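Task 17 of the worksheet. Students: predict the tertiary structure of the chain below and write it out as structure tokens. Keep your answer in the requested format; marks are given for formatting as well as content.
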Amino acid sequence: MVHFQKGKAGLLFLFFIFFTSTQAQSSEAISGKVLSEGQEPLEAVAVVLLSVKDSTYVEYTITDVNGEFKISEAQKGDYILNISSLGYISLYKNITYTGEALTFGNLTLVEDTYELEGVTLTAVVPVQIKQDTIAFNTNSFKVDADDNLEELLNKIPGLEIDSGGKVNAQGNEVTKIMIDGKEFFGGDPSIVLKNLSADAIANVEIIDKKSDESELTGVADGNKEVVINFTLKESRKNNGFGKVSAGGVLDNRYFGNLNYNKFSSKTQFSVIGKINNINITGSNIQDFLKNADGVDGDGDDEEEEQNSAQKTKSLSGYLNTGVAGVNVGHEFKEKESLNGDYFYNYSKNDGSSVSKRITFSNANNFDYVAENEYVNTKNDHNLNLDYKNKSNPNNSLIIKGQLMSDVINSYSNRMGRYFKEEELSTKNDNLSTVDRDRKRANLGINFYQKLRKKGRSLATGLKTNFNRSTMKNDQNTLITRQINTPKESVKELNTIRDQKLNTSAVNFNFKYTEPLGGNHYVKLESYMGNKIDKENVYQNKITVAAKNEEEILKYDYDHNENNYQTRLAHSYTAGKINTYAAMELQDIVRSFGVVDEAATVTDRLFVNPMATVQYIPKRGRKCRLSYKKNIRTPQPTESSTVVNDLNPFSIRKGNPNLVSEKIDALTLSAVVHDFKSSFSFNTRVQFQYTKDAIIKSVDVDEDYVRTLSYQNNGIKRRLNTTLGFSQKIKNLGLRYSVRNRNFFNTNNAIINFQLNEVTSKDFLISATLENNNKGVIDLKAGATYSVNNTSFSIERDLDRKYTKQQYFSMLDCDLSKKVNFNTQFDYFIYTDNAFASSENIPLWNATVSYAFSKQNSHVVKLLFIDLFDKNIDIYRRSTTNYFEETTSESLGRYFIVSYMHKLNNRPRKG
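Model answer:
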């Protein structure tokens, strides 16, 4: 009954959004027409409503091709109407909006020509629109004393940060974040947004950046990326700034943060430091989770999850983190710069989990339960270098390099139990210690040359990757069988495995473009690549018994792949329409096998068509349709001729006779952002059809030993769709947004020599309602509902359905100029028919902060985390022949008192 009521509440929430958005529509609006002194209509002029009290942002729109504008979402009240455009003197009007139509008729902007000693004097403009850039002045948005850039972006219209940390601007994913036009810690949003203070920023620029090739040649190719650039306040330039904070409580929870920056016109310098034991990584958390083998309870590296929506692991247990980073950038001359950063991350994650698994293998179905204790530590070093030289108008050179080193130590104590028809049949206790040392390096060089004839150009690129990894695995396995034996049988295995992996990849590309006239171009593109994988293994397995039987496995294995691609293409660029069509000839030569034995050699030739059509009718609208045929060669593990039996219950065998998959991919995407109506819409549909599909072949014997191999069999179908839209609710001062994601995947698998078709369907919908004017109160509420259905052709009674519901609310308000209160409440509901389990988890966090001193340079904060003390986390996955649900302990409730001090927060003199 509880689940029904919660689901019903989510439907009522969506109905409320629909009802209010349809009932609150009104024809009353603030409107007018903007003209130049010559009485010509001005397009893309920013029209902004500002609060009379503090001049903070309320609403904005832009004029159309006729110079007309309309703001129909404003609430009744007094405002400042600001009309501004680059090159014109801004116009300000005090207005009173009563809810009835307010029409200004023609409004004239005067050109800004007044200069004093070469310096143009302009007023502070809330919103400025240039050719490919929209700039927001941060003085028009209220930020708290200790807010980072993440909090600032959440208050700017058209910008959103999703749960995965991705930034979306007006329906487009932001690919890079810069400070004063320069990369900051490699442009990684997770580092930039969580460390720089919001009050150091003067403007936030959303830029539709052209490709490097297009910037050089001046010929649009339709390939743009959305970039956010933060420009610093003048008071922060040539003057070091930052903040230091620390906090702790009686139950040994603590944190400390340091951030210091100094920027000049030529040099950029930043330092970051973090230390805590409250489960905050301070860097990209997904990089940590990829190596956290104990988090999910029982990880099979060779397994690919069928459910795309559940691929991201969650961080459970207890995490200790230490982070240090430094970024240095220098501009030698205009458009020539060198940027480098170093990042160190120490993390230790320990905890416990319980995994429940249902495994099906035709007539031999069984259940598996595992209790797992784990400790994972990681020491990571990361050095990045980025050199750009675009000072010559005829060519450009870009060099990027990276050095990485990480040492990972993992300890796991897993107690597994196999059940047949609810009766215990086998125990598998595994104690494992893994030490991994990995070194990686990559270098990329790209050179673009513009030739004499307009549109004629050439480009070359070189990309190299080197990866060296050594891993030592020491494990003890105790197997107690109570089935298929006359009496209880105990077998103990001690296994030591030393493994060295060396991977190198070198890729070279060459592109030549020749103009044909009339915006038509022909392109010749060539790609050459070589990848070498070397594996050296020494494994000693001892069966502990009277004779201590010893089994030694030792081999050197090489996998060499050469890839040659030649492409002839035609492109057409005419501003609104961009097309690209090509035919590619691809030759792939593979050679692999154990050293000193006859190698397996394959040579395959493929013909790959591809085409793209992009239509951009005007600013804020874009539609793109693309088709491409891709070739995926078998991975070294899939075609390996060596059996991997490190885990006695999970054995992997390659198939050297595998052939490459042929993938036809069709993608359609559309983005609409209407500045006049504040409506934002984006969608993406991708369909993949794979022939000669590489599928899994799983054999499970009566002793629960699972042997995994691969075959080419049949086809795969995969369909991904995403849909999102948001709009203001007129006259209510609210905005709603709806997000939908669907995933459909079907492919074959062979389970105990029987062909099985596995179908996975995912559906997710979320809705959010929030207020527009966040000057004093920031309020947000919403719900998310997701469901996974997995079905099998062999045994329909094992079809699985599980759901996750989340209801959330957030309130951030200023109780006074010095006191801020923030609270967040989340309620999760997990259901799963496979395990007949249900979990309801409420999470409640709250903070109270007090800023003191004249410039609010000191902030004292009290944090209350997980007030209900629900220290639990759930992670699920569906694979080829089993379901799994892992329940882990998490940090739980704690309280922290913290103090933050801003460095050099005094305003500059003069």
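Marker's comment: The chain has a mean pLDDT of 83. The longest helix spans residues 2-23.
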